[in-house]
Amino acid sequence: MGQSEITDLQSRLKELEGQGTSGISGLVDFLIKGALEAGASDIHLRPGPSVTDVRFRLDGVLQQVAETALVLHPNIIARLKVLSSLLTYRTDIPQEGRIDATKYGGSVDLRVSTFPTIHGERAVVRIFDPRMEELSLKELGFSEEVKNTLEGHLRRPQGVILLTGPAGSGKTTTIYATLRFIIQSSRAPKNIVSVEDPVECVVEGVSQTQINPAAGLTFARALRSLMRQDPEAIVIGEIRDVETAEIAIDAGLTGHLVISTIHAGTACGVFTRLLDMGIEPYLLTSAVSAVLAQRLVRILCPKCKCPAESNEHFEGLKEALSGRAFVARGCPSCLDTGYKGRTPIAELFQMRETLRQAILSKSDTEELAKIAKDEGMKTLLADAIQKIKAGITSPQELRRVLVF
Fold first, then answer.
1. Would you say 182 and 188 are in contact if contact means Cβ atoms under 8 Å apart?
2. 284, 275 in Cβ contact below 8 A?
3. Which of 13, 14, 136, 397 has its CA 20 to 30 A from that of 66?
4. Which of 195, 176, 178 is nearest to 186 (CA)?
């Protein structure tokens, strides 16, 4: 947040703190409204030895915005629990709940998570904006090459498309966009099903299921049952184990379009992960048609970005950038962060004959990446450099997101 906004927030919090426990309700409401106005995706309340840190996550980065007196912390957490229908008297276990956001004038989904620590319960309020889950593939910000190629794979009647990237890299948003593309591009209605954990956005035209491990409804069990209902397209929230991976691969081989996520560092790293799970190479080469690896980088504020001049801005990238880059400066419009919004960088792996042979011979990730690059795959780094040259993001943001 900008310094003036932080100062205003701190002053207001101090004023509310002066009211003692009688001001707790107003203090919590003020924090939530402030986060919504700032466009934050999370509110973090972390108790320490003497104070509680108040942090907002803005464009994927935590920003310290204020501190509150530790003596008020239990009352603040209790108020959040009341709002989200949690057990106020249980401070020794993690809890999760939801807050009705309509009282704050928004349609967002507020999810509360509490967790016990040695200094008291820490709390995180996650802010989900349904509008972000309504974006089309075109609106997400992928390069034309990646968008067009991905759409081509989504038009196919069968095959496995995998998405990979760390938490917070936009995989869920991309999956919902692919679902909408399949529905809109189909000439006739399709039987589309999804198994998710949790269901974060309702998509009309898709039969969505949320897993419930406590009741025995796991990804694998749900998929085995759904396969008997003649699905044409299947979305799996995440491949976490070999059983789910085997069902996904088998579905892709037997005439179904399967879309799922799996954790790996790069697109080529997905194959190493699946091989380590015990999936046979010949099954991977026959079923997997594409792998999309993505990250989110912050977009430079158009009102205050300025040309990079110092050599340190180009460290490790000078030759690739050819001296063309902009850097963040900060202004009231972007709350002094220098950035406003986020956009994806991506690499899209497509199965080709040379890559099939490499996977069949169980080549390591580095060798697969070299072959894929020789076959024309644009890497995450190359995509990011293109966006830096276009003035969309900065070298500093690239270093924050990628290790190179």
1. no
2. yes
3. 397
4. 178
Of 177, 186, 364, nearest to 271 (Cα)? 364
81 and 87 in contact (C-beta within 8 Å)?
Answer: yes
Q: Is the dihedral of CA 12, 17, 18, 22 positive or negative?
A: positive
pTM greater than 0.85: yes
Structure confidence by residue, pLDDT tens digits, 1-26: 555 666 666 777 777 777 766 778 88
Q: Which residue has the tokens 């919004």?
A: 341
For strand 51-58 and strand 61-69, is the pairing parallel, antiparallel, or unpaired? antiparallel
Q: Is 255 helix (H, G, I), strand (E, B) or coil?
A: coil
Over the range 168-190, which residues count as b (16 or more CB within 10 Å of their CB) and which as e?
ebbbbbbbbbbbbbbbeeeeeeb
Mean pLDDT by 10 residues, the chain (404 residues): 63 73 83 87 95 93 89 93 95 93 78 96 90 82 96 96 95 94 93 92 92 93 94 96 96 96 95 96 97 97 90 76 87 87 96 96 95 95 94 93 81
In 216-338, beta strands by DSSP E: 233-236, 257-261, 288-300, 306-307, 326-327
Question: What letter does residue 212 receive in the DSSP assignment?
Answer: B
Residues 6 or more apart whose Cβ sits within 8 Å of residue 371: 354, 355, 358, 363
Compute the radius of gyration of the chain from its Cα atoms: 23
CB 371 within 8 A of CB 349: no
Rounded to 10°, the helix 269-277/365-374 angle is: 140
188: left (phi over 0), alpha (psi -120 to 50) or beta: beta
Q: Which residues of 321-332 are buried (b: 16+ CB within 10 A; e: fewer)?
A: beeebbbbebbe
**Residue 232 in contact with residue 190, Cβ under 8 Å?**
yes
Please report where in the chains the tokens 């967790």 appear, as a residue: 115
pLDDT tens for each residue of 323-332: 789 999 988 8
Decide: 339 and 372 in contact? Cβ < 8 Å. no
